[in-house]
Structures are given as C-alpha cells and as structure tokens.
Amino acid sequence: MGNYIFALSEQVRRHPVSYRNRFGIELAGDLYLPADFHSRDDWPALIIGAPYGGVKEQGPGVYANELAQCGFVALTFDASHNGESGGSPRRLSSPELFVEDFHAGVDFLGNQAGIARDAIGVIGICGSGGFGLSAAQVDPRIKAVATVSLYDISRLHAEGFAGSLDEAARRATLQALAEQRWSEFASGRATLGERGAPLQIDADTHPIGREFGEFYSRPRGYHANSSTQFTQTSAQGFMNFPLLDKLQWISPRPLLLIVGEHAHSRFYSEDIYAAASEPKTLQVVPGSNHVDLYDRTDVIPFDQLQAFFHDALQ
After folding, report:
1. pTM for the whole structure
2. Is the distance from CB of 165 to CB of 238 less than 8 angstroms?
3. What is the pLDDT of residues 20-51, one digit of tens each?
4. What is the mean pLDDT of the chain?
5. What is the pLDDT of residues 279-300, one digit of tens each?
6. Is 93 exposed, middle or buried (0-12, 13-18, 19+ CB in 10 A)?
7. Phi-psi region of 159 (alpha: psi -120 to 50; beta: other; left: phi over 0)
8. How confident is the model at residue 1 (pLDDT cuts 50, 70, 90)?
9. How far apart are alpha carbons 41 and 20 in whole angstroms?
10. Distance CA 163, CA 156 (A)
11. Per-residue b/e over 125-146, b at no fewer than 16 CB within 10 Å?
C-alpha cells in the first residue's frame, strides 16, 4: 500500500517480503538493507515490531530506516490479522499469535543469504515490546532485546491501566465478553472494540487519548491500515495468558528498556526492569512522552540502540 510516514534514506534499500508463521498465516513485511549490503557477507539483523494497532509503514519503518544506515539489516512486519498480513477475522489480536510473529521473523531472517543466524535481535515498540520480550523468553535465537515505550498488553487487559480494574469491574468485563462470544457465533461477524486513538481532539480529550490521536489520527502518523481497533473478544485471551512471567529466562542475553521521561506508560518499563535479570539497562529519554519515541528521530536514542546491538550481536 505504501504511504510511509517517513522518507527513505538514499543509504538504504527497502524490499517487500512475505513469509508464513507456524499457523500458516502469511505475514507482509519490509526488509531494509544497508546500501552496501552483499549476500556473501554475514550481517547482523533486527526484527522491529509495531506499536499495538500500528503497521510497518509507521514507527517500525522509522527505526529500520535509521538502523539500516548503521549497518543492520532490519525486518518490519504487519501483525497477523492486521495491516497487509493475512488472517481472518480482520483486526483480531492474540498473545500467542503476536508473539509467534516474532518467532516467524527469526525463522525468515535466519534463512536469508547474507544474514548471520547468531546475530539476530529484536526491537519492540509499545505493545510489541511485550510481544518481543515474550518471544525472547523461549527463543534463544533472539540474542538481544530492546523495548521502546513498552506496554504489557496482557497486564493492561487483566488489571486495567495502572491497576484501575477492580474485581467487580473485571467480573463485569468477563461476563460481557462471554455474552459477546455468543452473539458473534450467532452472527458470524466479529465486532470491533472502541478505537484507541480518538479521531476528534478538543479541550476535553483525555491527555493519553490526545497523545495517541495526535499521532494516529493526524498526518504525522496516519495510515489507513492502522485503525487502533481490535475485535472485542480479543481481550479474553490477553486477560487469561500473561506475556511476561518468565523474564528471567532471557538472561544472560542483554535487555535494553527505553522510555520517555514523561511517558504515561513509564511504569511498565520500570516494573519489567525490576523483574528482569542482568544484564539489563533502563534508559529514560529526557523531556519525551510515550508517543514521541514512535517517530521523533531527534529524540529517539539511536546512538544507544546502535551501540547496544553492536555489542550484543558482534
């Protein structure tokens, strides 16, 4: 579809690719290559996952474009059932599927000429931070993980934002999801939940909604494939299956957590940092919020990402 939110560097080549995950879903991706890439060499590679509700033409492409200039092959992709990737119903989300998409990226990269199988890392932005970490827990082929503006989507659904979902609200939510499943079985149609990023922004818009809306619903980050909505019943799986209960299994592979100083989601990265084993680094970006780290190349710490992966994947 195109319509990337950034300009491709003259020092980078981008090629559309497709490959299947173990569920047989065909994933649509982009492979970013340094201009001097040659398949006879062994290049380090990165898999870059989109924010929850995002697509490869947005933040992942921004990161891939920058890091390919630093000597990394970079793979971006649309999650299963989303963007240009396959899967029906559309806009479904699933903890296992979205983690599997990272495993499938490792499968793909490890079978490409010119890419070193023992030098593959992961960058997960927002919700993909949790999915990439979860994949690394059980996939030793992932040699290093960096997260940016991490969101733990399982925790978000099970607890509400910052623990706001009490027991009565949780029971009501589960009952509503159960009723919704009966309705969808009878109709044969999946129903989308509320849009995450508001289309209209005014003085009464919640600050978090405003932050997302100013990216997804404005020219800055707008893409037609990124609606920030998922099927309502997707929440059930996330509430039942925690993503990040085996963080210690990642060690001794290194972990870098990058978060904005003023990010509303900062506590997720801080809690993961406290729970993970060494080696680990928490990098707080001064003056930035959650969404700033999606696309603002003037504040994203690419120098630190380059150094982290250079050391981890050498």
Report:
1. 0.97
2. no
3. 999 999 999 999 999 999 998 999 999 999 99
4. 97
5. 999 999 999 999 999 999 999 9
6. buried
7. alpha
8. low
9. 25
10. 8
11. bbbbbbbbbbbbbebeebbbbb
Does residue 108 have a pLDDT over 90?
yes
- CA distances (Å), origin 278, targets 98, 281, 298, 301: 26, 8, 29, 21
CA–CA gap between residue 284 and residue 295 (Å, rounded): 16
Q: Please give the single-letter amino acid code of residue 64.
A: A
First CA to last CA across the chain, in angstroms? 35
Q: Encode burial over 106-116: b for 16+ CB neighbours within 10 A, e otherwise.
A: bbbbeebeebb
115-125 and 255-260 strand pairing? unpaired
| Residue 59 CB coordination number (10 Å) | 31
